[in-house]
Amino acid sequence: MADQVAASAIALFHLAFIFFVLFGGFLLLRWPKLVWLHLPAALWGMLIEFGGWYCPLTKWENHFLRAAGRAGYDGGFIAHYILPLIYPSGLTRGLEIAIGVVVLLVNAGVYAKVFR
């Protein structure tokens, strides 16, 4: 049970991190000091997508799922609604690059406005 809870918590954190990478730059318009948290997160998100790497959170999610005796993300709210956002089916290398470009463009636009 604790392993399943840990896997679910990591999946929720993973989703929150993805949203922070994509949209956290907008928080800088209100709280410019968040740049010290957002910039490394955005760079990491771009590196993951451009490099075709796996986020370490994925490793931990799978570790706890296996420890809970589960083979995948079947069943439950998190598995049904949140994990497909993190791991969409049909994710190709080209889509990974496109996601990285979107992260770059959105954040470059926001950072240009913040630093003006």
Written account of the structure:
By secondary structure, the chain is mainly α. Helix content is 73%, strand content 0%. The chain has one domain. It starts with a helix and ends with a helix.
Properties at a glance:
mainly alpha; single chain; globular; 73% helix; 0% strand; 5 helices; 116 residues
Briefly say what this structure is:
The protein has 116 residues and is mainly alpha-helical. The protein has helices at residues 2-23, 35-51, 56-67, 76-86, 93-115. The chain is built from five helices and no strands.
Blueprint of the fold:
Elements: H1 2-23, H2 35-51, H3 56-67, H4 76-86, H5 93-115
Average pLDDT value? 84
Number of DSSP strand runs: 0
- Spans of 5+ residues with little confidence (pLDDT < 50)? none
**Number of domains as seen in the coordinates:** 1
Beta-strand portion reads under 5%
How many helices does DSSP assign?
A: 5
Shape: globular
The largest pleated sheet is described as: none
In terms of quaternary structure, the protein is single chain
Q: Could you estimate the helical fraction of the residues in percent? A: over 70%
Distance between the termini: 50 Å
Instruction: Kindly name the structural category.
Output: mainly alpha
Radius of gyration: 16 Å
Order of helices and strands: HHHHH
